[in-house]
Write a structure and sequence with these properties.
115 residues, 55% strand, 7-stranded mixed β-sheet
């Protein structure tokens, strides 16, 4: 199982970015995939999750209405569309998957939002 996150970068407040989590070694549509983030000096926090057994994704309150998680089963990729970005969204974003009760993390991608 491997998770490859990409799409981070530097953006001005109010801008948008789309993160990608390319999965290999498992079919992402049959397992839960989530995005977490960790800002400097803070604990890692959950941002959004998409599950195989639920119709609706979940979001942290801080990103509701601004972020959207989706998946492309053909590409075995989960996306995080981030709109109306704020400086407080600055963090390293990590892709996470639970595959047969085992936890996997991808390498993070840096998102920096300037004010």
């Amino acid at each position: 199982v491997q998770l490859q996150a990409s799409g981070g970068g530097l953006v001005q407040a109010g801008g948008s970015l789309r993160l990608s989590c390319a999965a290999s070694g498992f079919a992402s549509d049959y397992h839960s995939v989530a995005w977490f983030r960790q800002a400097p000096g803070k604990e890692r926090e959950g941002v959004s999750c998409i599950r195989s057994y639920s119709n609706g994704p979940t979001y942290a309150d801080s990103v509701k209405g601004r972020f959207a998680i989706s998946r492309d089963n053909a590409e075995n990729t989960v996306y995080l569309q981030m709109n109306s970005l704020k400086p407080e969204d600055t963090a390293v974003y990590y892709c996470h998957a639970v595959v047969y009760d085992k936890y996997y993390w991808g390498r993070g991608t840096q998102v920096t939002v300037s004010s």
